[in-house]
Structure prediction request, 78 residues.
Amino acid sequence: MNTKIKGEVIKKHNTCAVIKVEHRKIHKIYGKQYMVTKKIHADDPKNEVNIGDTVEAIETRPISKLKHWKISKIINKS
Prediction:
């Protein structure tokens, strides 16, 4: 349950931030690397982050229909 991710904020709502998480995968047959992108909705109760910030989020209990993550710290300000 203590899963942490790092990503970039791409959208900002009142108490929610949408984080883009990218990682590389290797194709099973061809061995070629490709990028996989996920969008994660994270809770930001203090409304501290802005678009373009790099943040770290931690997995929590379900807060709403889409929010299952909470922003733990801001790594880089934009």
In short: The longest strand covers residues 16-26. The chain has a mean pLDDT of 94. The chain is about 0% helix and 60% strand. The domain at 4-76 is CATH 2.40.50.140 (OB fold (Dihydrolipoamide Acetyltransferase, E2P)).
